[in-house]
Amino acid sequence: MTYGYENLKLEKGMYAQSGKSFSKVLESLDPSENYRGTALEGLDAFQRQLKRFDIHVKGAGSDMVEKFFHTTDSAVLFPEFVSRVAGAAPRTLTPPTAPSSQIIAVTPVPFVSSVK
Fold first, then answer.
1. Rg from Cα positions in the chain
2. CB 45 within 8 A of CB 23
3. CA distances (Å), origin 97, targets 92, 93, 100, 112
4. Could you give the CA distance from residue 68 to residue 50 in angstroms, rounded to a whole number?
């Protein structure tokens, strides 16, 4: 069986549609309800595109970033991937810390030059 996600033409202009995220544009072109009762049920339109291009983004078998750039269509998916990863990052970060060491010094003595 052929699914709609396999034939979508992806282009960077999909990010520029006013009032719609890239995910919403994809979802409008390839609605998830079309996949009820199939092996693809539970995947959103973006995840189906990752499947289409065989890009694995989770776990030990994750692909290198270069895999997004094998085709111009698959390259369009990269900004959405970054957005999703950044959105999944913890919101509370601990402040950065740096190593410190105690300096024990003698009282400074003024330097007097004997050169005239």
1. 26
2. yes
3. 15, 12, 9, 40
4. 9
**Structure confidence at residue 94 (pLDDT):** 64
pLDDT digits (tens, 9 = 90+) for 55-112: 999 999 999 999 999 999 999 999 999 999 988 766 665 666 777 777 776 676 677 7
Q: Which amino acid belongs to residue 25?
A: V
Q: How many CA atoms lie within 13 A of 28 on its CB side?
A: 9
CB 77 within 8 A of CB 10: yes
| Of the candidates 72, 81, 65, the residue with the CA atom closest to the CA atom of residue 23 | 81
pTM of the model as a whole: 0.73
With tokens 């105690």, the residue in question is: 102
DSSP for residue 58 = S
